[in-house]
Amino acid sequence: xxxxNSFIRKNVFGLVNLLELSRRYDFRNLHISTDxxxxxxxxxxxxxxxxx
Length: 52
Description:
Blueprint lengths: L3 H21 L10 H4 L3 H10 L1
């Protein structure tokens, strides 16, 4: 990742904006993320080790 600060700002401020809009206009939202946020799972790690 070349610019982690930019990545973090976009994700944090983007989520804050979505939450503020959902509150203002009274709608629900479902936030789904990728392993960029949570990291790889143990199963992914094991699969990577098996392939190596």
